[in-house]
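In this section we walk through a basic example: taking a raw amino acid sequence and producing a predicted 3D structure, encoded as discrete structure tokens. The instruction is simple. Fold the sequence below.
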Amino acid sequence: MPLALKAENTLCIGRPNTMRISRFSTTLLTIVGLTLSLTAVVGCKGPITPPKTGETAIAPKTTIPPNISMAPMAENTLHSLPPLPTLSVATKLPPLGADPAKISVSGLSSGGFMAVQYDVAFSASTMGAGVVAGGPYNCFLDNGGRLGNLSDTSRCMSGAPSGDASFAAANKFANQNLIDDPSNLKSHKIYLFSGTQDNTVKQTVMNALNEFYVKEGVPSANIQYLNNVPAGHAFISTHVSNNCGTTMFPYINKCDVGGSLYDQPNAILTRIYGPLQPKSNQLSSSPMTFDQTEFKGTGLADTGYVYIPSACRNGGATKCSVHVVFHGCLQDAAIVQDKVYGQVGYNEWADSNNIIVLYPQTALTAPVMCWDWFGYTGSNFQTKSSPQISAVKKMVDRLTSQ
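The resulting token sequence is shown next.
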């Protein structure tokens, strides 16, 4: 049955352009036959005047098909979540003189699709990608999807799409100068992960992504494809997380592999950058918020996050790498708080290996808070001129500038 996501605007605290999650209500989001209760502020602008008792502002409804299954929050999770503090979005993303030859991306679900799109579109300036439960390039349009129509996504989530079709699309777009030459991909380092218990994005989809990279000439030695872990639809972390086989809010799971907890951020960063120094037990810095509005990306939140190791704050004297992490649907920080940008585990490895980690965020008003891999921002969603991809590229360029 169709689903309706409803966001309610409630009291704004602080100056204009702030965002706050105030409470979870009885608004229902039915997902694959189960329910999720959710209330979120979609944005606070203008004078700071509390609403009258009982007043709410209802955001437009988004209709989602049953296959968009970012699964339910556990009932006890709903009641235990603390309010998200008010966040200022005034801070500009700083120029840090990072190394433009050491840019990489990773992501989960819609963020996995976005990581692929960024990796392909800007292959000349990207060195690798980590994809957790994503799918092949241009899958949505290759399989007859109508722009922005979520009901057309099923083949790219539970079907058997074609890696060959993605290969053809990438070469077509390159010939039209819409993306970089896909031959750049031959040197990329690729990490792929598909859990055997993931019924949201099935392994047939990730198999097609693997086929796409092979077709593009990425050597087998450069691809790590882990597809035998009994994991659900989630990032895999040694930190706060659900049991391995679940698909449940906040979509971060704990899995035992070979007798020890699997550290997916370590696996991704090691695949891309090579052997790493041991992770930091005490971080030298903290994630900071920055203003995303100046980058003018459709469907992006006002606020993004970035982790900058202290060694990378010296004006470019240390040539740090940049890794972009794309969250999944319903994983925006406005919903999961710091679970992705602060707790999945990227920052500990980044801190000791001079890697700046960028955590761009989708808006609460974006369809199910997903990154655009199905054309809700327009037909160029998978190219260099994509409103979202180009905005993130501008963020990366800011970090590499002096």
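Looking at the output, two observations stand out. The chain has one domain: 103-400. Residues 387-400 form the longest helix (14 residues). In the next section we compare this with other chains.
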